[in-house]
Amino acid sequence: MDSNFTWIHIYEELAHALLRYKEDRTELVEWIYDDLGKVTGADGQSLVAYIKQKDGSKILDIDPFSVFAIFNRNTSWGNRTELLNHFKKKLGLTLDIPTDFNGIPTVDARRSFFFSWKSDNSKVIHDLWQLYEKVISDHDISEAFDQVLENGMPKYSLTMCLFWICPEKYLALDSRNRSYLNSFGFPNEFPKFYYQEYSNLLEQVRNMMTMGDIPCSSAIVEFKLDNRPVCFRKLLLHLPQLFFRCIGSLDICQTNKNGCYNINPCDYNHDPFRSHLIHL
After folding, report:
1. Rounded to the nearest 10 degrees, how much is the dihedral formed by the CA atoms of 21, 49, 47, 165?
2. What does the pLDDT read at residue 218?
């Protein structure tokens, strides 16, 4: 049994269930404050206290990606698991709570939302829901994607959001993935970035993976660590920067409960991500 990437299916189930609030988020916002507001971190502070207007008052509306960011922030696994348990109960999800969050890029815990504090907030939120619905419905997202960028959404954050809700189709261009792609000849930055450029990049990456120019595998790799079986599955589009080749053996890469990847070195050729502690 694959013990990693257990989050994929419940994230996808949650993404579909959340679509019920596309036309009216009043109840959703109230629930976030009334229910999720009771979930606290080690400091005793609510884990959703950061969700507020510029003047500190409660928000009245929210976009779907900001909802996903609630449990995809730089916080502990325990906090994220507890938050997901609340979402599971609220949305009537049927799948199990994940036992790992491996491979998920996270957002800064200090401002983990994508709605606007400006007068255009209603339009910003509307357009984010429009894009979200098209992704979930597997429709053409080109115009909606570009519109969200025009509204001021950070381009790399947008790709991370798409990966959260549809990880088998979209690639997160967080700093680690861009650095890894750069080692295969891709630019580290994309000054001109609209959907056409993103789509072209996805196609290039898929082709290079298919040809073997970017190492990847969808197979489950099993081995033992401290006499315990360990299984890894490499995701198709979340680049295998955490899964390394080793001369005659496998590099061992585990994730601890603080979200850090602990890489135990062995005899291997140079890889730009080896011998690092990588914090999600």
Report:
1. 30
2. 45
For tokens 């979340």, name the residue.
238
Query: What are the two backbone dihedrals, phi and then psi, of residue 34, each rounded to the nearest 5 degrees?
Result: -75, -35
Q: Rounded to 5 degrees, what angle do the CA atoms 273, 200, 153 make?
A: 75
Say yes or no to pLDDT of 257 above 80.
no
Q: What is the DSSP letter of 243?
A: S
First to last CA, the chain: 24
Token look-up 């381009």 returns: 155
Token pair recorded at residue 73: 């922030």
pLDDT bracket for residue 208 (50, 70, 90): confident
The torsion defined by the Cα of 213, 218, 220 and 223, in degrees rounded to 10, comes to: 10
Mean of pLDDT values over 199-213? 88
Alpha helices in the chain (DSSP H): 8-18, 26-34, 64-69, 77-91, 121-136, 142-150, 155-165, 175-182, 195-211
Neighbours of 174 (CB within 10 A): 19
CA 150 to chain centre: 22
Coil, helix or strand for 43? coil
pLDDT above 90 covers a percentage of the chain that reads 54
* Distance in angstroms (rounded) separating the CA atoms of residues 229 and 156: 36
- Which residue reads 């295969």 in tokens? 184
Nearest residue to 51 (alpha-carbon basis) of 101, 98, 112: 112
Q: Report the SS3 class of residue 45.
A: coil
Phi/psi for 251 (5° steps) reads: -70, 145
* Sequence-separated (6 or more) residues with CB below 8 Å from residue 142: 195, 196, 199
Which of 30-44, 90-104, 113-127 is least confident?
A: 113-127
Judged by average pLDDT, the poorest of 55-64, 77-86, 233-242, 271-280 is 271-280
